[in-house]
Specification:
33% helix; 9-stranded mixed sheet; single chain; 12 helices; alpha/beta; two-stranded antiparallel sheet; 13 strands
Length: 295
């Protein structure tokens, strides 16, 4: 059985939800306190045992490459001034096997994953979306790898959402649990209306996929939004080989929208050793007039 040792991080989106901030800045570089979003994703991959990571980028994403590259001038400056703690933080972002490829046209998540075909070869791999920061005792990516070691099949992660939210997600039609929290799946539906949704178990941004998904994606017709949808390809794959769904019970931060990003900054700020006490004091003292809440 081949080990899961490679991950793909699609990062080619335009980030229109965060305009004007993302007009000249990659959305994956938006900070959570003092760390860009994409670094959380890379750190989860490494903590899960991933050895090589491919980042699929697009126009205007060069700052991602720069962030994970060495900066000799900065490192020299920190070293000469004895700022060893900051130097360590900078050096931790460079000793990683990161690779980059461009998605030349924005044809959807499925097409972005297809760009990794040559990099992955004939191996199982993980897809990690940068819009989701996951927090749990065992990293979610590692949970999926552990499931793969037992099932030898593709597995994706799901959470329960309110019925009215189904139109925002891919939704699974579960057949039942093979073990607590691990579902057999009948089918996968991309962004159904609440009336048509087969369940309220929504796909979130971690997938462990068998390499056969690439052949499916290469022949996949455009779906919702006129794009190549990864969910549609997974549904097709599920017709010829098993695909499971793992229910995530940890803390998910949806940093793909403004409120989620703000919530993540507050929560991580309350754990940050430099600012947690001052931030907690500020939040305790914060009084928002009713008229402001009504606006």
């Amino acid at each position: 059985m081949k080990r899961v040792r490679k991950a793909v991080i699609p990062a080619a989106g335009l980030g229109t939800r965060f305009l004007p901030a993302t007009k000249a800045m990659a959305k994956e570089m938006l900070p959570i306190v003092d760390k860009p979003v994409i670094q959380f994703i890379v750190e989860e991959a490494i903590a899960s045992g991933i050895e090589d990571i491919l980042v699929v980028t697009g126009k205007g994403k060069r700052p991602i490459e720069d962030h994970f590259d060495a900066n000799a001038e900065l490192e020299y400056n920190l070293r000469s001034k004895g700022k060893t703690d900051l130097l360590k933080l900078v050096e931790e972002t460079t000793d990683i096997n990161l690779h980059f490829i461009r998605q030349k046209h924005p044809r959807g998540l499925g097409d972005a994953v297809l760009q990794a075909r040559a990099f992955i070869g004939n191996e199982p791999f993980v897809v990690m979306l940068g819009d989701d920061i996951m927090v749990d005792e065992v990293p979610l990516t590692k949970q999926l790898i552990n499931d793969y070691d037992r099932t030898r099949a593709s597995i994706l992660s799901v959470i329960e959402v309110e019925n009215k939210e189904t139109r925002k997600y891919g939704i699974i039609d579960p057949l039942g649990e093979s073990e607590p929290g691990l579902y057999h799946v009948k089918s996968f539906v991309e962004k159904p209306t609440p009336e048509d949704a087969p369940s309220n178990l929504a796909i979130i941004g971690r997938y462990l996929l068998m390499p056969e998904i690439f052949e499916v994606l290469a022949n996949q017709a455009p779906g919702a939004g006129g794009e190549i949808q990864l969910t549609d390809a997974i549904d097709s794959l599920n017709k010829v080989q098993r695909v499971f769904a793992r229910q995530f019970t940890g803390q998910r931060y949806d940093v793909g929208d403004k409120l989620g990003l703000l919530e993540a900054n507050i929560q991580f700020g309350l754990r940050h050793p430099e600012i947690k006490d001052e931030l907690a004091d500020y939040l305790r003292k914060l009084e928002i007039p009713d008229k402001e809440l009504e606006k």
